[in-house]
Target: Chromosome partition protein Smc
Amino acid sequence: MHLKSLTVKGFKSFASATTMRLEPGITCVVGPNGSGKSNVVDAIAWVLGEQGAKALRGGKMEDVIFAGTAGRAPLGRAEVTLTIDNTDGALPIDYTEVSITRRMFRDGASEYEINGNQCRLLDIQELLSDSGIGREMHIIVGQGRLDAMLHAKPEDRRSFIEEAAGVLKHRKRKEKAIRK
Ligand code: ATP
Ligand code: MG
Model:
């Protein structure tokens, strides 16, 4: 299973429909400052159901919709489609290719689709739940975090690793239990 393509339309700086093809392995996105590299990562988090505006580097969810530029009017909706190659059947659905779409309007309403059929966010979460991707299962290391990790004190670095491995929440619960 791997991410096959990402199409963004009206999402952040991507006013016109833009499709990026992704190959198996490592993908690098290069470009000048402010050209929209981080917005590509935000689009992946968003289509997988991210609900926090902060995680998407905005103040409110509406900030994901193209806000207009000097030469171009704002748009009324944002749409992102992520296509996943499922030839190995890692996702429990009878399709070799699975497209997940999220669409949002200025009134805040979101629509979700799996292969073009309208569905609930819960259906997407269930589909992805054992795959290692999904709202809380993939790991996105934010800009500047890698630097922070490399320069961190050993004990702080350990908490990064524990967070990535998913044990930090258990340690916090253990510490809380011991304090009581
Ligand atoms: P850097 O190299 O500095 O990290 P980057 O390539 O990661 O830059 P992004 O943060 O992805 O850049 O993109 C920032 C750009 O996206 C800014 O120019 C900002 O104005 C634009 N942008 C963000 N949200 C919107 C929006 N809703 N509508 C229009 N443009 C937006
Ligand atoms: Mg960036």
